Each structure stands twice: as C-alpha cells, then as structure tokens.
Automatic annotation (TrEMBL):
This is Bifunctional protein FolD. SUPFAM superfamilies: Aminoacid dehydrogenase-like, N-terminal domain, NAD(P)-binding Rossmann-fold domains. The keyword Amino-acid biosynthesis applies. Residues 140-277 form the Tetrahydrofolate dehydrogenase/cyclohydrolase NAD(P)-binding domain. One of its GO terms (biological process) is L-histidine biosynthetic process. The keyword Cell cycle does not apply. Residues 6-121 form the Tetrahydrofolate dehydrogenase/cyclohydrolase catalytic domain. PROSITE patterns: THF_DHG_CYH_2.
Length: 282
C-alpha cells in the first residue's frame, strides 16, 4: 500500500486534549461546565449510536450534555418549540439536532430554530453563509474535520483540483465552500454527473461523500492524489474502494478512523468556543 494514512484518531485525540483543557478553564471562570444539548427524533438505531458517542465523548472532555430524545410522532411545531427553548436557555451553550429527522418533519425549519450562536454543527443558513463568505462562525462539523485533517498534513490546496462527490447541505456543499476558500479549484459531483470516473481521474484531492459502499473505484484515483473518504456504510465500509485506491493515492483516510473521529472533535471544540463567546456576551 504506497499511500500514507491520514490518521483521524490521533488528530482527534490531540484536538480533544486542547478542548478538555479549555473546558476546565471555562468551568474555573464561570462555575459551570460548557453544555451541549443533543436532540434526537425517532428510533433510527444509527442515530442513537451517533448521539450516544457524542454524549460519552462530551463527558470525557468535561462538557455537560443535555440529551433530549423525542418520539417518531413529534411534529415540526413540537420540535421547533424544543429548539427555541434550548436556544433561549442560558444554561445551554450548544445545540446538535441529529439528522436525518423523520421525513414528515421540515428539517430546514428545525435547523433554522437553532440560535446561530449555538449552532455548533453548522447547520443554519447563517453558519453556511459565514462559511461561504469566509467570516467567523461555525463550520459544519464533518467538513470542518476534513479541513483540519488536510491542514494537519500540510496538503497543498491552493491551485489543486478538488473533486467532491456529494452535494448534501451538511457535507458535500459546505466542504466545497471550504475548499474554495482555501483556493482549490472545486468540482461538485452528484447523481446527475455524467462521467464521474473522468471527474475523479483528474482530481488532486478527492472527497467522497455519497453514502454508497466502495462506490469510488480505486482505478479512478490519480496517482499521488489525496483521498478523503467521509462515507460510512454498514460494516465499517467507506465510499471509496480502499485497498485499490490506497495502491494509487499518496494520502488516504481509513474507514473507520479517518473523518468520523474528527467530526466529533470539531463538534466539541465548537461547543467550547460557543460557551466562551456566549459567556463574554453575558
Ligand atoms: P446524502 O444527503 O444522502 O447525500 C448523498 C450525495 O451523494 C447526494 O448529493 C447525491 O446526489 C450524491 N450521489 C448519490 N448517488 C450518486 C451517484 N451515483 N453519483 C454521484 N453522486 C451521487 O448523504 P450525506 O449526509 O452527505 O452523507 C454522505 C456519506 O457521508 C454517508 O455515507 C454518511 O454516512 C457519511 N457521513 C459521515 C459523517 C462522519 O462523521 N464521518 C457525517 C455525515 C455523513 P444528489 O444530490 O444528486 O441526490
């Protein structure tokens, strides 16, 4: 395997050491820990696992969590009311609405009910616009984690051709914005892209965010390219055909142990930043 691994586990661990130290300082100066509220609607087993991981990891770094689990039958109005209450609660610094929410809920309306100052998962229009304009604000957690992985390995983005496969509002689109802000030449691919293999073949940096196991074939990868696999499919399988891609890539993220740990690290880092900023305002 000629490719070197981009190790999200160790970068997340060092990020969380800093987060933990900042959480201790915050508690010492305010008399309380930073608090992340998680809101989960419905019974999706994977979403329950993700929320449990986030709550456990919060506790380990000295962040309190308030976990709110709502039934599948929750209406958009009921969810908005919960999110408005959390947004105005001074004991809550950060809010994560686990997505996807059940199909009958207006997800965009729910995201917009989160106070942008507490939007540590970067899902509101305000956060997206701040990211797009390069202004201070919270990035979407997974794209933020991807950019930190690239930065930690000094991947040259200025002038590089970056191809993102996937254009979801929480992953593909925002990571495209962040790559553009880093002066990459960005192509966003999606289900209507006519020749995906051709797009990927000329990419210096490939970001896979599709949600289909091993969909990006190893022989599409340009020799020496940087391959970031954000996909996570049942059985710990990414969106990239890992073993074949690793034969051609220069750098590649493993699944698991690449992007996933960085998503949580960014979420908790942004939680402490939100707590500090709100404490200054108060
Ligand atoms: P999503 O909302 O389902 O979006 C999937 C994207 O893939 C869409 O933009 C879709 O295009 C595109 N796509 C589907 N079929 C395609 C095809 N044949 N060719 C090219 N593009 C195609 O998914 P998501 O929420 O962005 O998540 C993507 C993956 O990342 C999933 O595996 C998810 O589990 C993973 N994920 C991981 C983390 C983490 O922390 N590691 C966090 C979030 C998500 P259209 O827009 O045209 O439909």
């Amino acid at each position: 395997m000629p490719a070197r691994l981009l190790d999200g586990v160790s970068l997340a661990a060092s990020t969380l050491e800093t987060v933990s130290a900042e959480a201790v300082d915050f508690a010492a100066s305010t008399g309380r820990k930073p608090c992340l509220a998680t809101v989960l609607v419905g019974d999706d087993p994977s979403s329950h696992v993700y929320v449990r991981m986030k709550v456990n990891r919060s506790r380990k770094v000295g962040i309190d969590s308030r976990r709110i689990d709502l039934p599948e039958s929750t209406t958009t109005g009921e969810l908005l009311s919960v999110l408005h209450d959390l947004s105005s609660d001074p004991a809550v610094d950060a809010i994560l609405l686990q997505h996807p929410v059940p199909a009958h809920i207006d997800e965009r309306a729910a995201f917009e009910a989160i106070d942008p100052r507490k939007d540590v998962d970067g899902v509101t229009r305000t956060s997206f616009a701040q990211m797009a304009f390069g202004e201070p604000g919270f990035s979407s957690a997974t794209p933020g984690g991807i950019m930190r992985l690239l930065d930690a390995d000094n991947v040259q983005l200025a002038g590089a051709s970056a191809v993102v496969i996937g254009r979801s509002p929480i992953l593909g689109k925002p990571v495209g914005m962040l790559l553009l802000a880093a002066d990459a030449t960005v192509t966003l691919c999606h289900s209507k892209t006519t020749d995906l293999a051709d797009e990927v073949r000329r990419a210096d940096v490939v970001i896979a965010a599709v949600g289909r196991p091993e969909f990006i074939r190893g022989d599409w990868i340009k020799p020496g390219a940087v391959v970031i696999d954000a996909g996570y499919n049942e059985g710990n399988i990414g969106d990239v055909e890992f073993s074949a891609a690793a034969e051609r890539a220069g750098l590649i993220t493993p699944v698991p142990g690449g992007v996933g740990p960085m998503t949580i690290a960014v979420l908790l880092d942004q939680t402490v930043q939100a707590a500090k900023a709100l404490a200054d305002v108060r």
